[in-house]
Amino acid sequence: MLKPRSVREVIQAGWFLYRRRFRFVLTASLSILFPYAMIAAYVQAHFTMLSSDEMQQLMTDVGSNAQTSSLLSVLPHGSEIWFIVLGLMYMLLVVPLLQGILVHMTAQIMLKKQDVTVSEAGNLAFRRLLPNVGTLVLVGLIYVFFIAVFTLIIFLIFSLLGSVSQALASVIVVLGSIALFIGVIWFLLRVSMVSLVVVEEHRSFFGAIRQSFRLTRDQAKRLFGFFVMLFLICLVIETFLSLMGSVFFPSAGGGLMIDSLISIFLTPFAMLCMSVMYVDLRIRRGE
Q1: Which residues constitute the domain of residue 150?
Q2: Fewer beta carbons within 10 Å, N or C terminal of the chain?
Q3: Residue 209 covered by a domain
Q4: Is 2 contained in some domain?
Q5: In a structure prediction context, what are the per-residue pLDDT tens digits for the chain, which is 287 residues long?
Q6: Number of folded domains in the chain?
Q7: Nearest to residue 266, comparing CAs of 284, 245, 287?
Q8: C-alpha to C-alpha distance for 127 and 199, rounded to whole angstroms
Q9: Position 233 in a domain
Protein backbone atom coordinates (compact mmCIF):
# COMPACT_ATOMS: atom_id res chain seq x y z
CA MET A 1 0.00 0.00 0.00
CA LEU A 2 3.08 2.30 0.16
CA LYS A 3 2.83 3.79 -3.31
CA PRO A 4 1.62 7.08 -4.80
CA ARG A 5 -1.97 6.97 -5.97
CA SER A 6 -4.10 8.73 -8.53
CA VAL A 7 -7.26 10.54 -7.40
CA ARG A 8 -9.38 7.56 -8.43
CA GLU A 9 -7.13 5.16 -6.53
CA VAL A 10 -7.27 7.35 -3.42
CA ILE A 11 -11.06 7.18 -3.38
CA GLN A 12 -10.96 3.44 -4.09
CA ALA A 13 -8.57 2.97 -1.16
CA GLY A 14 -10.91 5.00 1.04
CA TRP A 15 -13.80 2.72 0.05
CA PHE A 16 -11.62 -0.34 0.69
CA LEU A 17 -10.81 0.85 4.22
CA TYR A 18 -14.46 1.74 4.79
CA ARG A 19 -15.51 -1.82 4.01
CA ARG A 20 -12.58 -3.52 5.72
CA ARG A 21 -12.90 -1.58 8.97
CA PHE A 22 -16.64 -0.96 8.83
CA ARG A 23 -17.18 -1.91 12.48
CA PHE A 24 -14.44 0.52 13.53
CA VAL A 25 -15.84 3.28 11.30
CA LEU A 26 -19.42 2.75 12.44
CA THR A 27 -18.43 2.71 16.11
CA ALA A 28 -16.48 5.93 15.74
CA SER A 29 -19.28 7.57 13.79
CA LEU A 30 -21.93 6.54 16.30
CA SER A 31 -19.75 7.76 19.17
CA ILE A 32 -19.11 11.21 17.64
CA LEU A 33 -21.73 11.94 15.00
CA PHE A 34 -24.77 10.28 16.55
CA PRO A 35 -24.92 12.52 19.67
CA TYR A 36 -24.46 15.59 17.47
CA ALA A 37 -27.14 14.37 15.06
CA MET A 38 -29.58 13.95 17.95
CA ILE A 39 -28.81 17.44 19.26
CA ALA A 40 -29.13 18.93 15.78
CA ALA A 41 -32.42 17.11 15.14
CA TYR A 42 -33.83 18.29 18.49
CA VAL A 43 -32.79 21.89 17.81
CA GLN A 44 -34.25 21.82 14.30
CA ALA A 45 -37.50 20.26 15.46
CA HIS A 46 -38.05 22.64 18.40
CA PHE A 47 -36.33 25.90 17.49
CA THR A 48 -35.69 26.27 13.76
CA MET A 49 -38.47 24.44 11.88
CA LEU A 50 -41.23 26.55 10.35
CA SER A 51 -44.91 25.92 10.82
CA SER A 52 -47.08 25.32 7.75
CA ASP A 53 -48.32 28.94 7.80
CA GLU A 54 -44.76 30.28 8.15
CA MET A 55 -43.56 28.05 5.33
CA GLN A 56 -46.37 29.27 3.11
CA GLN A 57 -45.44 32.87 3.91
CA LEU A 58 -41.79 32.16 3.14
CA MET A 59 -42.66 30.62 -0.23
CA THR A 60 -44.86 33.62 -1.01
CA ASP A 61 -42.07 36.03 -0.16
CA VAL A 62 -39.59 34.08 -2.29
CA GLY A 63 -42.03 34.10 -5.19
CA SER A 64 -42.51 37.84 -4.89
CA ASN A 65 -38.73 38.51 -4.78
CA ALA A 66 -38.90 39.91 -1.26
CA GLN A 67 -35.85 41.48 0.30
CA THR A 68 -33.49 39.42 2.44
CA SER A 69 -34.58 41.22 5.59
CA SER A 70 -38.20 40.27 4.89
CA LEU A 71 -37.27 36.62 4.31
CA LEU A 72 -35.23 36.46 7.52
CA SER A 73 -38.12 37.91 9.49
CA VAL A 74 -40.20 34.84 8.64
CA LEU A 75 -37.69 32.48 10.25
CA PRO A 76 -38.24 31.55 13.91
CA HIS A 77 -36.81 34.10 16.30
CA GLY A 78 -33.31 33.15 17.45
CA SER A 79 -32.91 30.41 14.85
CA GLU A 80 -29.79 32.08 13.45
CA ILE A 81 -28.13 31.69 16.86
CA TRP A 82 -28.87 27.97 16.87
CA PHE A 83 -27.49 27.59 13.35
CA ILE A 84 -24.27 29.32 14.42
CA VAL A 85 -23.96 27.18 17.55
CA LEU A 86 -24.54 23.96 15.62
CA GLY A 87 -22.08 25.02 12.92
CA LEU A 88 -19.35 25.82 15.44
CA MET A 89 -19.99 22.58 17.32
CA TYR A 90 -19.69 20.62 14.10
CA MET A 91 -16.55 22.36 12.81
CA LEU A 92 -14.67 22.64 16.11
CA LEU A 93 -15.73 19.46 17.91
CA VAL A 94 -17.32 16.80 15.71
CA VAL A 95 -15.06 17.08 12.66
CA PRO A 96 -11.70 17.26 14.54
CA LEU A 97 -12.57 14.28 16.74
CA LEU A 98 -13.95 12.01 14.02
CA GLN A 99 -11.31 13.00 11.47
CA GLY A 100 -8.60 12.48 14.07
CA ILE A 101 -9.83 8.96 14.85
CA LEU A 102 -10.06 7.99 11.19
CA VAL A 103 -6.74 9.47 10.09
CA HIS A 104 -4.89 7.69 12.90
CA MET A 105 -6.45 4.37 11.93
CA THR A 106 -5.67 5.00 8.26
CA ALA A 107 -2.06 6.00 8.89
CA GLN A 108 -1.42 3.02 11.14
CA ILE A 109 -2.78 0.57 8.58
CA MET A 110 -1.18 2.10 5.49
CA LEU A 111 2.19 3.15 6.92
CA LYS A 112 2.81 0.64 9.72
CA LYS A 113 0.51 -2.27 8.80
CA GLN A 114 -0.98 -2.12 12.32
CA ASP A 115 -4.58 -2.04 13.46
CA VAL A 116 -5.74 0.19 16.29
CA THR A 117 -8.86 0.13 18.42
CA VAL A 118 -11.45 2.89 18.49
CA SER A 119 -10.50 3.70 22.08
CA GLU A 120 -6.81 4.12 21.19
CA ALA A 121 -7.55 6.36 18.21
CA GLY A 122 -10.22 8.22 20.19
CA ASN A 123 -7.84 8.93 23.07
CA LEU A 124 -5.29 10.39 20.65
CA ALA A 125 -7.91 12.52 18.87
CA PHE A 126 -9.24 13.78 22.22
CA ARG A 127 -5.75 14.65 23.52
CA ARG A 128 -5.09 16.61 20.35
CA LEU A 129 -8.50 18.33 20.34
CA LEU A 130 -7.45 21.64 21.91
CA PRO A 131 -4.37 22.06 19.66
CA ASN A 132 -6.58 21.04 16.74
CA VAL A 133 -9.24 23.61 17.55
CA GLY A 134 -6.64 26.29 18.20
CA THR A 135 -4.94 25.61 14.88
CA LEU A 136 -8.25 25.67 12.99
CA VAL A 137 -9.12 29.00 14.63
CA LEU A 138 -5.70 30.34 13.63
CA VAL A 139 -6.30 29.23 10.04
CA GLY A 140 -9.67 30.99 10.12
CA LEU A 141 -8.11 34.20 11.43
CA ILE A 142 -5.42 34.13 8.72
CA TYR A 143 -8.13 33.54 6.12
CA VAL A 144 -10.24 36.45 7.36
CA PHE A 145 -7.19 38.74 7.61
CA PHE A 146 -6.08 38.20 4.03
CA ILE A 147 -9.66 38.49 2.74
CA ALA A 148 -10.01 41.81 4.55
CA VAL A 149 -6.64 43.12 3.30
CA PHE A 150 -7.32 42.08 -0.30
CA THR A 151 -10.82 43.58 -0.21
CA LEU A 152 -9.45 46.83 1.19
CA ILE A 153 -6.82 47.02 -1.57
CA ILE A 154 -9.46 46.46 -4.27
CA PHE A 155 -11.67 49.11 -2.68
CA LEU A 156 -8.82 51.62 -2.61
CA ILE A 157 -7.92 50.93 -6.24
CA PHE A 158 -11.58 51.32 -7.23
CA SER A 159 -11.80 54.61 -5.34
CA LEU A 160 -8.65 55.98 -6.98
CA LEU A 161 -9.56 54.90 -10.51
CA GLY A 162 -13.23 55.77 -10.18
CA SER A 163 -12.52 59.46 -10.67
CA VAL A 164 -10.46 58.73 -13.79
CA SER A 165 -12.41 55.98 -15.52
CA GLN A 166 -15.47 54.23 -14.13
CA ALA A 167 -15.18 51.47 -16.73
CA LEU A 168 -11.54 50.76 -15.84
CA ALA A 169 -12.42 50.72 -12.13
CA SER A 170 -15.21 48.22 -12.80
CA VAL A 171 -12.85 45.97 -14.75
CA ILE A 172 -10.34 46.08 -11.89
CA VAL A 173 -13.06 45.11 -9.41
CA VAL A 174 -14.19 42.18 -11.57
CA LEU A 175 -10.64 40.93 -12.08
CA GLY A 176 -9.92 41.42 -8.38
CA SER A 177 -13.00 39.42 -7.44
CA ILE A 178 -11.93 36.58 -9.72
CA ALA A 179 -8.42 36.66 -8.27
CA LEU A 180 -9.87 36.63 -4.75
CA PHE A 181 -12.04 33.61 -5.56
CA ILE A 182 -9.07 31.71 -7.00
CA GLY A 183 -6.92 32.71 -4.04
CA VAL A 184 -9.50 31.49 -1.55
CA ILE A 185 -9.68 28.09 -3.26
CA TRP A 186 -5.88 27.88 -3.39
CA PHE A 187 -5.56 28.72 0.31
CA LEU A 188 -8.22 26.21 1.35
CA LEU A 189 -6.51 23.49 -0.66
CA ARG A 190 -3.12 24.26 0.90
CA VAL A 191 -4.49 24.14 4.48
CA SER A 192 -6.80 21.17 3.87
CA MET A 193 -4.47 18.78 5.74
CA VAL A 194 -3.93 20.94 8.83
CA SER A 195 -6.31 19.04 11.11
CA LEU A 196 -4.83 15.69 10.07
CA VAL A 197 -1.28 16.91 10.64
CA VAL A 198 -2.16 18.13 14.15
CA VAL A 199 -3.39 14.69 15.18
CA GLU A 200 -1.05 12.34 13.37
CA GLU A 201 2.21 14.35 13.44
CA HIS A 202 1.65 16.11 16.78
CA ARG A 203 2.23 19.55 15.28
CA SER A 204 0.20 22.61 16.17
CA PHE A 205 -0.50 26.15 15.04
CA PHE A 206 2.07 27.51 12.57
CA GLY A 207 4.00 24.22 12.51
CA ALA A 208 0.90 22.35 11.33
CA ILE A 209 0.13 25.04 8.76
CA ARG A 210 3.69 24.92 7.38
CA GLN A 211 3.54 21.13 7.18
CA SER A 212 0.20 21.25 5.35
CA PHE A 213 1.68 23.74 2.89
CA ARG A 214 4.72 21.48 2.44
CA LEU A 215 2.63 18.36 1.82
CA THR A 216 0.36 20.11 -0.68
CA ARG A 217 3.12 21.89 -2.60
CA ASP A 218 2.62 21.36 -6.37
CA GLN A 219 -0.54 19.37 -5.57
CA ALA A 220 -3.21 22.10 -5.83
CA LYS A 221 -4.68 20.91 -9.15
CA ARG A 222 -4.72 17.29 -8.02
CA LEU A 223 -6.33 18.19 -4.70
CA PHE A 224 -8.93 20.33 -6.46
CA GLY A 225 -9.85 17.39 -8.68
CA PHE A 226 -9.94 15.09 -5.67
CA PHE A 227 -12.30 17.29 -3.67
CA VAL A 228 -14.55 17.90 -6.68
CA MET A 229 -14.79 14.18 -7.40
CA LEU A 230 -15.38 13.34 -3.74
CA PHE A 231 -18.05 16.05 -3.50
CA LEU A 232 -19.87 14.75 -6.58
CA ILE A 233 -19.79 11.15 -5.34
CA CYS A 234 -21.15 12.14 -1.93
CA LEU A 235 -23.74 14.42 -3.54
CA VAL A 236 -25.06 11.65 -5.77
CA ILE A 237 -25.22 9.16 -2.88
CA GLU A 238 -26.85 11.67 -0.54
CA THR A 239 -29.42 12.76 -3.14
CA PHE A 240 -30.35 9.17 -3.96
CA LEU A 241 -30.70 8.16 -0.30
CA SER A 242 -32.66 11.33 0.50
CA LEU A 243 -35.09 10.66 -2.32
CA MET A 244 -35.54 7.07 -1.20
CA GLY A 245 -36.02 8.20 2.37
CA SER A 246 -38.63 10.80 1.40
CA VAL A 247 -40.64 8.05 -0.27
CA PHE A 248 -40.76 5.83 2.81
CA PHE A 249 -40.66 8.59 5.46
CA PRO A 250 -42.44 11.63 3.99
CA SER A 251 -42.92 13.46 7.32
CA ALA A 252 -40.63 16.21 8.62
CA GLY A 253 -39.46 13.96 11.46
CA GLY A 254 -38.72 11.19 9.01
CA GLY A 255 -36.67 13.61 6.94
CA LEU A 256 -34.58 14.54 9.96
CA MET A 257 -34.02 10.87 10.76
CA ILE A 258 -32.94 10.08 7.19
CA ASP A 259 -30.58 13.07 7.10
CA SER A 260 -28.99 11.93 10.37
CA LEU A 261 -28.50 8.37 9.11
CA ILE A 262 -26.99 9.58 5.85
CA SER A 263 -24.54 11.75 7.78
CA ILE A 264 -23.57 8.90 10.09
CA PHE A 265 -22.72 6.57 7.20
CA LEU A 266 -21.51 8.99 4.52
CA THR A 267 -19.36 11.46 6.47
CA PRO A 268 -16.83 8.81 7.63
CA PHE A 269 -16.38 7.70 4.02
CA ALA A 270 -15.43 11.23 2.94
CA MET A 271 -13.07 11.56 5.91
CA LEU A 272 -11.43 8.22 5.12
CA CYS A 273 -10.79 9.38 1.57
CA MET A 274 -9.20 12.55 2.95
CA SER A 275 -7.10 10.44 5.31
CA VAL A 276 -5.87 8.29 2.42
CA MET A 277 -5.02 11.44 0.47
CA TYR A 278 -3.04 12.72 3.46
CA VAL A 279 -1.06 9.47 3.66
CA ASP A 280 -0.51 9.57 -0.10
CA LEU A 281 0.91 13.10 0.17
CA ARG A 282 3.29 11.93 2.89
CA ILE A 283 4.41 9.00 0.73
CA ARG A 284 5.05 11.36 -2.19
CA ARG A 285 7.24 13.48 0.13
CA GLY A 286 9.15 10.41 1.25
CA GLU A 287 7.80 10.38 4.81
Answers
A1: 7-284
A2: C
A3: yes
A4: no
A5: 567 788 899 999 999 999 999 999 999 999 998 888 888 777 776 665 544 454 454 445 545 454 544 444 545 555 667 778 888 888 889 999 999 999 999 999 998 888 899 999 999 999 999 999 999 999 999 999 999 998 888 888 877 776 677 777 778 888 888 888 999 999 999 999 999 999 999 998 999 999 999 999 999 999 999 999 999 999 999 999 888 877 777 766 666 778 888 889 999 999 999 999 999 999 988 76
A6: 1
A7: 245
A8: 9
A9: yes
